[in-house]
Specification:
alpha+beta, 9 helices, binds FE2/S2 (inorganic) cluster
Length: 220
C-alpha cells in the first residue's frame, strides 16, 4: 500500500470510530453515565452530597411551622430562604414588599416578637418559634384598621405606596417603645425606611397622626 493510501485508510477508520462513539452515546447514554461518575468522584473527594442525596436530604427538616399573624403556618422552606421570600411566595402575604433585597430600603419590614426586622435579611429557619407580624395581621378580626393604618387614610400619606407597609410596620414597632414621640424622634425611628417617591414629609405627618390615633385608642 502507498503512503497516501495508508493515510486515507487511517482517516477513514478514525471517522468511523468517532461516528460509532457518537452513535453509542445517543443510544446508551454512556457519556451521561461517565459525567455522573466523574461528578460522583469529585463529590466524594470534596465531601459534598451527591445529586440524588441533595434532592431528598433534609426534606423533613424543610417542613417547618411558623407563627404568622397569630396563626400556625406549615411551610416548606429551604435552609437559605429569606423570610421575605417565604412570606411572599410560599404564604401569599404579598403586602410585605421586596425593594432592594439587601437590607437597605426597609420595604420588607415585619415585626418579630414586636421588633421591626428587614425580612429580606432574616432566614426563615431562624424565626421558628418567633411571633411574626406582617401588614396583613395588623387590622382587627372585624376589619377595623390599626390606628397607624388609619393615620395613613386620614392624612393620605403616600404616593405610589410601595414603601407603605414597611413604614407602617416600622412605626408600629417603634411606637411600642415610644408611644408619644416628637416629630423628630419619629423621623429618627423611621429612618431605616426609604421612599422612592420621596414623600417623606407627608409620610411623617401620617405616622404622627397614627401615633395620635393609637394613643386615643388606648385611652378609649
Ligand atoms: S427589601 Fe429588605 S431592606 Fe430593602
Ligand atoms: S410612596 Fe412611592 S415609594 Fe414611597
Amino acid at each position: 500500500m502507498t503512503e497516501k493510501a495508508e493515510q486515507e485508510t487511517d482517516r477513514a477508520s478514525k471517522t468511523l470510530s468517532r461516528r460509532n462513539f457518537i452513535k453509542g452515546v445517543i443510544t446508551s447514554g454512556v457519556a451521561v453515565s461517565s459525567a455522573g461518575y466523574l461528578f460522583r468522584t469529585s463529590s466524594l473527594l470534596h465531601g459534598q452530597p451527591l445529586p440524588d442525596q441533595q434532592s431528598t436530604a433534609g426534606v423533613g427538616e424543610r417542613l417547618i411551622t411558623l407563627n404568622v399573624n397569630g396563626q400556625q403556618r406549615r411551610v416548606d422552606a429551604m435552609k437559605q430562604e429569606t423570610l421575605a421570600s417565604t412570606l411572599r411566595y410560599k404564604l401569599g402575604l404579598t403586602g410585605t414588599k421586596l425593594g432592594c433585597d439587601r437590607a437597605e430600603c426597609g420595604s420588607c419590614t415585619v415585626l418579630l416578637d414586636d421588633i421591626p426586622h428587614f425580612s429580606c435579611s432574616v432566614l426563615t429557619h431562624n424565626v421558628r418559634g418567633r411571633k411574626i407580624l406582617t401588614i396583613e395581621g395588623l387590622a382587627g378580626a372585624d376589619g377595623t384598621l390599626h390606628p397607624v393604618q388609619q393615620g395613613v387614610i386620614d392624612e393620605q400619606g403616600f404616593q405610589c405606596a410601595f414603601c407603605m407597609s414597611g413604614f407602617i410596620m416600622t412605626a408600629v414597632g417603634y411606637l411600642k417603645t415610644n408611644p408619644n414621640p416628637t416629630r423628630q424622634q419619629l423621623a429618627h425611628g423611621l429612618s431605616g425606611c426609604l421612599c422612592r417617591c420621596q414623600d417623606y414629609d407627608k409620610i411623617l405627618t401620617a405616622m404622627m397622626r397614627g401615633a395620635e390615633n393609637l394613643r386615643g385608642a388606648k385611652l378609649g
